[in-house]
Design brief:
Elements lengths: L1 H27 L10 H14 L7 H23 L4 H12 L8 E3 L12 H9 L16 E12 L5 E12 L4 E12 L5 E9 L8
Parallel strand pairs: 1-5
Antiparallel strand pairs: 2-3, 3-4, 4-5
Helix pairs in contact: 1-2, 3-4, 4-5
Length: 213
């Protein structure tokens, strides 16, 4: 019932947005006749956006919860791999739940990617996490190392714009031998129509090491 009410509310918001777009187009028509052909596209975009995204602000608590879910997901993929399970499906479900590839463009620059640094598609992200895609030969499967724990340490979370939150800091990955790797991250989140946070930008890298120069 909650989801139904959300859809009804968003449909109403979308209708109001469409009316506003239509009204603005009518006022501008004498001066901008060439915008008339774009009106249907504007209306469709307004409707799509209203139905895909929540109109509620993102809280810091929600960001921390999303980070915990992300870390648990990485550990779960590794556990399924270690138990000879269907880790590719587990990873696909993880990406679908955590990232916004079905909502908009996603800017994803993972840690261990050198040749294909930016993963703008679902398949490219899946390859990074579990490997097995000939189009990305460098991928060994980050999530199937595997890891037993992921800990986030935020240097800060910014949610000034309300509809998007950005977190930056270090996260620490513990492997099966107890070794810990520190990685730097930046995540940007939006909230979908179900109230779940989805990642639309993710950049991570290993800390600078002056001894490498």
């Amino acid at each position: 019932m909650k989801n139904l009410n959300t859809v009804i509310t968003k449909t109403a918001v979308a209708a109001a947005t469409v009316l506003l777009v239509s009204g603005c187009s009518a006022v501008a028509k004498p001066q901008m006749d060439n915008t008339a052909s774009n009106s249907p596209a504007l209306k469709a975009k307004a409707l799509d956006n209203a139905l895909l995204y929540s109109d509620e602000c993102i809280t810091e608590r929600e960001v921390v919860s999303a980070q915990r879910k992300w870390g648990d997901g990485i550990v779960r993929i590794g556990a399924v791999f270690s138990n000879d399970g269907d880790y590719s499906t587990e990873a696909a479900d993880f990406i679908q739940a955590m990232y916004g590839y079905d909502l908009s463009s996603v800017l994803f620059k993972p840690t261990l990617a050198a040749n294909d640094q930016f993963r703008s598609s679902f398949d490219a992200a899946l390859s990074y996490f579990v490997g097995g895609n000939d189009a990305y030969a460098e991928d060994k499967g980050f999530a199937i190392k595997p890891y037993t724990n992921v800990k986030f340490d935020n240097v800060g979370i910014i949610n000034n714009s309300c509809r998007m939150a950005v977190a930056m800091g270090n996260y620490f990955f513990t492997d099966t031998q107890g070794g810990e790797t520190k990685v730097e991250y930046t995540f940007a989140y939006v909230k979908d129509s179900d109230g779940d946070l989805r990642i639309v930008a993710h950049q991570s890298s290993l800390p600078y090491n002056p001894n490498d120069n």
